[in-house]
Design brief:
Length: 419
């Protein structure tokens, strides 16, 4: 199968890359290992869309298509339909149930991607490739260097299974969206304090000291972000299964905690849960630039900026236990608004491969901020734009004029420059 652009992974970054490439007039294929597009936007039950970037990115279009309102948890069933419609309208060829299993290179140029599925082995060729797998699968198959985990011990952030509950009393407005979202329950108890005490006493699982509750489009529902399993290698299939089994057991304990302690939650039930493990961190593919914590804290800008004014806290869920791991604050430290350069999306050793999403080139700490969905969507759009410019100018990631990539994005309405 021959294409102009091939994108591996149909999560937030991959969909954004595919839409930008196809809308630019290039024959685009999107390869997805699951039976549904969307990644964490559908299969992962992740919401709301976190992080911010400059105005005008494709993240706004996607959020409007799948969420009841901006800042709210997506309607996951609506998202499955809406994201498919966007891809169909753009003319993207989508290959579901298809796993990337290998790659062929000539020197530093990636020529083919090998895949396997129930229909057998397939080969795809293209002039430009995008790795939006989250785990950097295509880049690794292409021989690109990578790192994983924190420097001192290689541990990654814990994994989670998100779920949605219903049956909440519509008069109960309790939400808990972060580590300092203090809420008086009206009877002398404070919700976060209650969570911490329940973790210490064993009423909650040992690594669960906060049960985050987010608003959906229905007053009687909440999205729950609470389950946590530590010391899991997300690249080990047996470890992934053990984690999923443990997390599904944790759901029952968390439900009992809410029923027994929160007025209006007595009759809750699980409405739905993620179909795949929520992995916050795995491989980081080393690129021509390494984005660092210092870059984020300084709000650094770059000549080859393709994502502008990104912002999210340094949100490192403790790899070895509950809570946060890097700073002393209960609530993670927040960087200035920062930029992401194209050079951080260009893997070493492969000149026609672009990374997008949480697998770009950065440190363990920097990754904790740019890994969230609005920022990943902006990276995906930038990858699609870069692929389009590389094709039109017959250049590589090494030789492309990044000013042309920036102009392409700004022509789309992305506000890469302050004015």
């Amino acid at each position: 199968m021959k294409y102009d652009v091939i994108i591996a992974g149909s999560g937030p970054a991959g969909i954004s890359a595919a839409l930008e490439s196809a809308r630019s007039g290039y024959k685009t294929a999107l390869i997805e290992r699951y039976g549904c597009v969307g990644g964490n936007l559908t299969m992962g039950y992740v919401g709301p869309l976190l992080g911010t970037v400059c105005k005008g990115t494709i993240a706004e279009e996607i959020e409007d298509a799948i969420c009841p309102a901006r800042g709210m948890v997506p309607d996951f069933e609506k998202a499955k339909i809406a994201l498919t419609a966007l891809l169909d309208e753009a003319g993207v060829d989508v290959y579901l149930q298809t796993m990337v299993t290998g790659a062929e290179k000539e020197g530093s140029i990636l020529k083919k991607v090998h895949t396997d599925g129930k229909f057998g082995h397939m080969e795809f060729s293209a002039r430009v490739f995008v790795d939006a797998t989250g785990d950097g699968d295509l880049a690794v198959q292409s021989g690109c260097p990578w790192e994983i985990g924190r420097e001192e011990d290689g541990l990654v952030q814990p994994v989670t299974l998100m779920f949605v509950i219903d049956g909440v009393d519509p008069e109960q407005t309790l939400l808990c969206q972060h580590e300092e979202h203090y809420t008086d329950l009206g009877d002398g108890r404070e919700y976060l304090d209650l969570c911490h005490k329940a973790c210490a006493s064993g009423e909650l699982p040992e690594n669960v000291n906060i049960v985050r509750l987010y608003r959906t489009g229905h007053k009687t529902e909440r999205m729950v972000n609470a389950t946590q399993e530590n010391r899991i290698d997300p690249l080990d299939p047996l470890a992934v299964y053990r984690a999923e089994a443990a997390l599904r057991r944790q759901i029952g304990k968390i439900m009992d905690f809410l029923r027994n302690n929160i007025p209006g939650f007595e009759n809750i039930r699980v409405k739905g849960s993620a179909s795949t493990l929520g992995v916050r961190e795995s491989r980081r593919i080393m690129g021509r630039y390494l984005l660092t914590e210092q870059d984020l804290m300084e709000g650094k800008t770059f000549p080859d900026t393709v994502v502008h004014r990104a912002h999210f806290c340094l949100d490192i869920h403790n790899p070895a236990g509950p809570g946060q791991s890097v700073h002393d604050e209960k609530c993670p430290k927040s960087p200035k608004r920062y930029d992401i350069p194209f050079s951080a999306m260009c893997p070493i050793g492969c000149d026609n491969l672009i990374t997008a999403g949480r697998c770009i080139s950065g440190t363990h700490v920097a990754h904790s901020s740019y890994r969230v969905m609005r920022i990943c969507m902006a990276m995906g759009q930038a990858a699609g734009a870069a692929a389009s410019v590389m094709l039109s100018t017959e250049t590589s990631t090494q030789t492309v004029d990044t000013n042309l990539i920036r102009s392409h994005l700004m022509d789309r309405g992305v506000r890469l420059e302050d004015n």
